[in-house]
Amino acid sequence: MERNEFEKNISQKLDGFKLIPSEENWAKIEKRIHQNRRRRLVLWLSSTATGLFILLATITIVNINGDKENKKFTNTTTDKKINLEASTNSNTNNKKFDIQQEEYNDIEENNSTTLKDEQKKGNANLKAAITFNYRSTNNEKNTDVILSVKQEKTNDLAILDSTIAKVKYNNDFSKQDTTSGQMDRSPQKDSVIELAETNSSMSVVKHVDDVKMDTSAKQRKTTKVKTPWKMYIHTGIGMSVIGDYFVKPVDVNQRVFASFVPGVTGNLSSSAVLLNEAEHSSRTSFQIGLHWRKERKKSIISFGFNYLNAGSKVIAGARVDTAISSIQLRDANKAFDGYINNASANSNQTYVNQLHIIGLQVGYGAMLFKKINWQTNAGISLVYAEKYLHYISSRNIYVQDKSLIRPINFFISTGPEFVIGKKQQFLLNPSLAFFVQPVQKNSVNGSRKLMNLSLNFSMPIRK
Amino acid sequence: MTDIHQLVKDCLKNKPSAQKALYDKYAPEMLGVCYRYTKSIADAEDVLQNGFVRVYSFLHQYRFEGDLGAWIRRIMVNAALTYLKKKQQYREDFFFTDSTELVVVSPISAEINITTKELAQLIRQLPTGYQTIFNLYAVEGYSHVEIGKMLGISDITSRTQYARARKVLAEWIKNYSEPQKQVYGKK
Fold first, then answer.
1. Which of A11, A18, A279 sits opposite B29 (nearest CB)?
2. Any idea what DSSP says for residue A367?
3. Are the beta carbons of A33 and A39 closer than 8 angstroms?
């Protein structure tokens, strides 16, 4: 259907049609924008938390499997792979034995037949290549010895007709492992290997003459000794970032550039205040607490409590007059009342509220490297604010509103943990904590996030 | 144009002042668009809110090609259609005949001697289905194929409904004094 004059006239007539929206329309839109932003943040954090959880779960599963594997080798003396390739004078056919993943118990009981015995019986001119891994475990300390032995060339060969073979070496086991205090059970180079058969169905054991071996051994210690809970005191300083519901500037059109100002109140946590375009306030934070931790094979579990002081008794703002800026610092308690009276359109003054947060937390640490862990804590906290301030844009003032803060809150924190020292282990832990919706009032504009980035130091107070 | 660019960039930085400025600039025109697709001013404002929230969410997709107003307008139209679909308004009083019989449009006077607001009000008095298709075709300039895809109907249905809406509206414009008494073709 072709457009004709009628459509053109309609279109032209309606082209400039305008209606004035009601005043509260923008407020609703603004609120939804903030909600969307918060949703995106929550989504991002959820994704990060999920990723972290998957990572931790993977590490945990790997650890559990590692534990199972260690248990599997308890009381196990020989495993893995034995390849035998042999040819004899009487039988020119090559025989190949490939024995994998066999487990044998208590090698000491199976020494009835040795290679030396077989050597005496003759049957020389055998060639063989024997490759096997040897793993022995000591029950008390769970020390694994992984040994690779390669027999490059022999005149004789132990031919094992059965599919189960056992290997024993006859060196004196006298070498002490200086690190673990355990006997070193790895055979030394050029030591003579004795082959022992554990399976009664074995029919023939040929002997080996002049065994030349290339041995290499490495030790892996996995201490399974039960570790006790250790108590640590931790303290940290950092910076907390809080949504603009606390720090809404008088005039959002005024920009306040990032400014660091020295603390003057004597409060430990008031060393710096950062204002970022007057929308968010970062303030120093201080925390202290106790926690107990227990080390496992590849992980650390912990619990404890923590006091976090987010914010300081500082009121800070920047006055922007043409190109000249000045910083004002006042004691918050004194400045609060005066602030309302003195608020002017030319100044961006921000009242920085002070939050006291006491939390109970449980934690999980994954041992990533020898001295580096990744620690994640989660818990519940009680939040108390000294000033419950709520900015009302229409009246351009702050008012006190005790329903602003959600008193019970949840948090999660995560970060790397660096272990310092050998005997006394101190911990250095930069961490980012996120508090889930500390503000409950729907009418408050702005995001409701509270995050705390801190550098924590933990010291053991009991061995 | 530079001002618009700066405004968009500031909005992308989530600056409240810029967001408000963008709203102030385009809200009246967009409310006029929303008004034509809805039955009440409250509904129109709801659509406007939904639309502007979408605008701020998808502003990063605006490539500074073409008029920003036209880009926002498309979003508003889509927001209106989503709103109507949610309410399922044009399903209730919109009969979707797949009849291939096209309505023969009688000669209609091209003259429109009423005010813009009166015209908008007359369009709103059409059944929602007619109203939607009329707006999309006559005002926004979409083709019947596009309208069919947007509403999930065949283009023939769109043509049929449009022809009827056009006829009814032309008669209403002609007899503006008593538009409510006009009978429109609903089977």
1. A18
2. E
3. no
DSSP state of B135: I
Query: What confidence category does residue A445 fall into, taking pLDDT thresholds of 50, 70 and 90?
Result: very low
Whether residue B65 lies within 8 A of chain A, CB to CB, comes out as: no
Pairing state of beta strands A193-196 and A166-169? Answer: antiparallel
The answer, for B88 touching chain A at a CB cutoff of 8 Å, is no
8 Å CB contact of A9 and B17: no
Q: How do residues A227-271 score in pLDDT, each as one tens digit?
A: 788 899 999 888 776 554 333 333 323 333 333 333 333 322 222
- Please name the member of A14, A17, A32 whose beta carbon is closest to the beta carbon of B53: A32
Q: What would the pLDDT profile of B124-140 be if each residue is shown by its tens digit? A: 888 888 889 999 998 88
Q: Of the candidates A4, A22, A33, which has its C-beta nearest B53's C-beta?
A: A33
Q: Is A393 within 8 Å of chain B by CB?
A: no
Residue B31 CB contacts under 8 Å (≥ 6 apart), including other chains: A18, A19, A20, A21, B44, B45, B48
pLDDT for residue A393: 47
Considering CB atoms only, which of A14, A32, A253 is closest to B139?
A14
Report which of A95, A90, A83, A160 is spatially closest to residue A125, judged by C-alpha positions: A90
* Residue A232 near residue A290, CB atoms below 8 Å: yes
If you count them, how many residues does chain A have? 463
What values do phi and psi take at A165, rounded to 5?
-130, 155
Entry field: residues in chain B? 187
**Does the pLDDT value for residue A24 go beyond 50?**
yes
pLDDT score recorded for residue B149: 84
In this prediction, residue A54 has a pLDDT band, given cuts at 50, 70 and 90, of confident
Which of the 8 DSSP states describes residue A180? T
Spatial contact of A171 and A188, defined as CB atoms under 8 Å apart? yes
Q: Of the spans A32-36, A131-135, A357-361, which averages the highest pLDDT?
A: A357-361
Q: How close, in Å, is residue B2 to chain A by CA atoms?
A: 20
Please give the mean pLDDT across all residues of chain B.
79
pLDDT at B76: 92
Closest chain B residue to A2, measured at CA: B143
pTM of the model: 0.40
Contact A28, B49 (CB under 8 A): yes
Q: Which helix (H) or strand (E) holds A240?
A: strand A230-242
Cα B169 from chain centre:
15
Burial of residue B160 (number of CB atoms within 10 Å: 0-12, 13-18, 19+): buried
